[in-house]
Design goal:
alpha/beta; 7 strands
Amino acid sequence: MTSLSNPLIWLASASPRRSALLKQIGVAHRVRPVDIDESRHEGELPLPYVQRLAMAKAETLWSRLSEGERAPVLGSDTTVALGNDVLGKPRDREDALRMLRRLSAQTHQVYTAIAVRDSLGCESRVSVSDVSMRELHDDEIAAYWDTGEPRDKAGAYGIQGFAALFIERISGSYSGIVGLPLFETGELLRTKGWTVRAAAHEQVRA
């Protein structure tokens, strides 16, 4: 097991939600986003898709760190799926409205994968949650788009924002639906030697 005498990790994501969730559990981190090709392979199912992207983000940032910067890298990816159909971030207003109409009065799945890369390799975990939406009407879907919230969200909604009004129930990890499943994150970091007692309670930006 790798001992983290310095609990600082790198977060390979620009998501302020993921950073806030790490801060919530006392994981000191630096933020350094990476751009990768997030295209889905033909026939790729949602779970292996998010797992592959989370690992690719962690591996990509690890490869870019100098020896002096090396510390565990956390990559993560979230997607919304209706059956095996992946609903990513909307391209535009019409795409967002189409997604939300499909999710209306349905139970869908939110997949969030995390991966930690260190000198011993890359390990990953996946959280899967069921989310049930009430029936949505076209006027409220349009009004929701106008809030600006759906633009950068998988499935065109954010449960931590206005879309909480649409959610009847969830089964699974709330933090995973937001973007970083804290149980799985803590379990994975513990395999790398991290403990709550050892964690610093501040975030450091690159």
